[in-house]
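pasting for the record
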Amino acid sequence: MTGTSSSPVAEDTPRTYGLGPRAAAALVFGSSAAVLVVEIVALRLLAPYLGLTLETSTMVIGIALTAIALGSWMGGRIADQVNPRRLLGPSLGVSGAVVALTPAVLRTTGEWASGLLLLIASLTILVPGALLSAVTPIVTKLRLTSLAETGTVVGRLSGVGTVGAIFGTVLTGFFLISRLPVSGILIGLGTLLVVGSALVEWRTRGWSGTPALTLVVVAGGLATTVAPGGCDTETQYHCVRVVADPDRSSGRTLVLDGLRHSYVDLDDPTYLKFGYVRAIASVVDAAFPEDEPLAAQHLGGGGLTFPRYLAATRPGTRSLVSEIDSGVVRVNRDQLGLRPGNGIDVRVEDGRLGLRRLDTDSRDLVVGDAFGGVSVPWHLTTAEAMTDVRRVLNEDGVYVANLIDHGSMAFARAEVATLRETFEHVALVGEPADIGLDPTAASEGGNVVVLASDRPVDLRATQESLDTRKTDWKIASGDDLTSWIGDAQVLTDDYAPVDQLLQPYSQPTAQ
C-alpha cells in the first residue's frame, strides 16, 4: 500500500522568508550608518554640558558599542523565535522616533535636570543603537535559504554593515555637521527611519504603528524649537550664541557651549571686560614699549578681543590668528564687526599646525587662548608645543596664555611646570588664593595667566598695570612659584592627561 506521510522539517534547515539582496543590503547599510550618525551627533549635544573631553567621548563610544552588541545579540535571538519580517518595521520606526526626540530631550535635561543627564543620554544612544543594530541579524535570517550559503550571506552583510558605519562616520564628520544643525540632523534621520519603517510595513503589512511614530517625529521637531539650550549658530565645534550687553549698547558676549568665552565692544576695542584679558593686556603693555607695533601669533581666536585691542593700541601690529572653528570666524564677521584692513589675519587652522608654518624668530608675541573650562586641546599644552612657541619667538619675545582650572589646579600646575622646562623666565598672574600667595584662603579656581620668556619681564611694571586696571590679581614668581607648582609633572606629547588633571567645571562664567 502506497501512502503519504508528513515529517517535521529538520531543525538545521533554515526557513525561507525571502528578501531581495539589494533590499537586504540597503537595510543593513542604512541602519549601520544611522548608528554612527547618532553616536557622533550625541557628542555634539553633550559637549555644552559635559565638555568635549576624553571622558565624554569614551562614554559615548562605550554606550554605542554596548548598543551594537546588545542589538546584535537580541536581534539574532528574537529572529529565531519570531517571523523576522515582523521585526524590521518596529526596529526602524521606534528608533526613528527616539532619534527625533533626542535633541529636545537632552537639551531639556541638561538645562533643567542635569543630574539625570548621563542616564537620559545613555538611553537616547542605547535604545536606537540597539534597535538599529538588530536589523543586521534580522536581515541575515531573512536572506538565509540554506546552510550551504551561510558563510557567504553572513560575511556579505557583515561587510555591508561595516561599510555603512564608515559611510555614516565620514558623512557626519565631514559634511553634515559643517552644514546642518545637530537637531536638524537627528530629526532628519528620525524621519528617514520612520519612512523606511513605513516602506517595510507596506511590503509586509504586519504592523500598523507607523502613523503614530510619524506623530512622534513631528512632536520631536516641534519640541526642539522650544527646548532650552539652543544656539544662534551650530558650528563644527561649538554651539554659538551672541548676547547683547543690556548695560552697554555696543557690548556683545560670545557664548560657546554655554560658557561666556569673549566680550567685544563693537565701538571701543580697548574696553576689556573680562579680568583675564585685562591681565594679558597688562603683561603685554609692561613687556613692550608703549605704542610699539608687534608681530603677534594668537592660538585660538574666539571673539578676537585681544587682537582688536592690539590693533587699537599699537597701530601697525600684525596679528595672525589660528582659529580652528570656521563657524566662529563667520560669527566674528557677521555679528561682531570684524572687518579687513586692521592688521588681523584669521586663518582657519589648528594652532599647533599654525605654529609649525611660522618662521623661526618671526614673532614678538604669542598669545595662547584656546583652553576652555571643561575641555583643553591637550596638544597645545606639551613641552613639544612650547618648544615650537619658543622657536617662533625672537630673543625678546613673550608667550602669554590664559589657563583655566579648578580645585587643586592640577592642570595649571602641570602647564606652568612644562613652561619652566622650556623658558628661562616664567611667572603666574591670578587671584592670590589661586596662585598660592594667600595660604589662608581656599582656592576657588578659575582663570590664571602665565607668562614666559627667555628674557626678564618687568614684573613690577606688570603689577602696576594690573593695579591701574582695577584688578586684585597678583604675580607669583621665583620661590613662590616653585612652591605652588610642587611635584606637578611636565606634560609631553607622550603623556598629557589634561582631561583628567582638569577639575570638574559646572558654573558658566567667563573663560
